[in-house]
Amino acid sequence: MKNNIPTILITAYAVNPYKGSEDGTGWNMVAEIAKQQKTVVITRENNQEAIEKFLKENSLSQVDNLNFEYFDLPYWMRFWKKGGRGALLYFYLWQMGLVFFILKKKIQFDIAHHLNFHNDWTSSFLWLLGKPLVWGPIGHHPATPKKYLMGSAGKKEYLLDRFKWNVKNFFWNVDPFLKITKWKAKKIITINSSVASCLGLDPHKEIRLPAVAASIPRDHKDHFNSYLNSKNNEFNVLSVGRFVPLKGFDITIKSFGHFYHTQESAVQKKLQLTLVGKGPQKPALVELVNSLGLQEVVQFIEWMPKSELHRYFRTAALFLFPSHEGAGMVIPEALSFNLPILCFDNEGPGELMDDSCGFKVPYTTPAVSILKFSRYLDLLFHSDEKRFALSQGAGIYFKNNLTWERKGKIITKAYQDLLFPDQSLKTTYTPLVEA
Length: 435
Description:
There is one protein chain. The protein is of the alpha/beta class. The chain is built from 17 helices and 13 strands. The chain has a 7-stranded parallel β-sheet with strand order 3-2-1-4-5-6-7, sandwiched between helices. Strands 10-9-8-11-12-13 form a 6-stranded parallel β-sheet, with helices on both faces. Helix 1 crosses helix 16 (about 405-420), helix 4 crosses helix 5 (about 155-175) and helix 9 (about 250-260) packs across helix 14.
């Protein structure tokens, strides 16, 4: 450690500045951490081209603090891995190989940080290196409520969901390496409230910090987008995500359909539902739209560059996202554009917002949920005042809770607490790069 500035060894299986989801989260967290201290980031070789391209094309103030190393197992140990097939097994083997890679390279560091995968049911092996270990952010998708999954996707998807849930429970309760990781980790970053109970974590180790966040749009202005959009006599409801049962798009469509069909014809002309995404459930969702007579007012759009997607955020009135997942990257993005949120009151999207920026619907039955979402759509369409208040709250909540800068500072404080327990030492620690 030089001048009380630590070097952080970060292992991130998925890091790509051009992607979203876990890859995008990995990149943004690494970039923020490097503003505060020196970093050595180890990731897979297949991420090298994208990382080097981005660093060449973009001027980052923290570039001198970002040091990347690329590691993969030899081909004979991974020839069987195809895309997502075998990813979990390969991740385990990759982590084991990492330890030998780090020792062989004689990498010097003060803290080891296992950044991703974000699974809380797969262990880390960085504790073998004998340095303080930070683990996370980690979490999981909860089991989708049976009534909601059976009604939308059928028995096969329900059994698959429960199989995945049982696999997680097996690792939580049986995997000895996971138990060692919990014991050895000095700080454990969790993405929602369910992680600590599922893992039985020591509360003194836990840092609650959602993995998802967003950047303030470059052309963002201090206005309340959805409120101003209402003055154009349009009411565009937006939802973004993969078309899979986990995301609850059937609830989205049915809720909008109920709302739409209860309006007068003059009002119906102002309404639109825009669904951005792709996935195996799309044909079934298109069929659902047609069966509800919504084909003229529901628009399906394929994935697009983030800059183009932002155009849809700017023209939306609100963001409807009844997903059952454990997080939700699109929630911070929607809030960054001052969009009110409608979602389930669950451990995922429901913990990424509060009553100041939208409405949360509790799990009961699909029919009751659809009716409640529909009523909230009706309320926000007919009340500019309420929509304005929630839009204002969305922007404030985002800036206070869900920016990458905030996450970088919280993680940096965790490092300081480990290395500088003496308060007098903490005062000599300053960021290498001002955010």
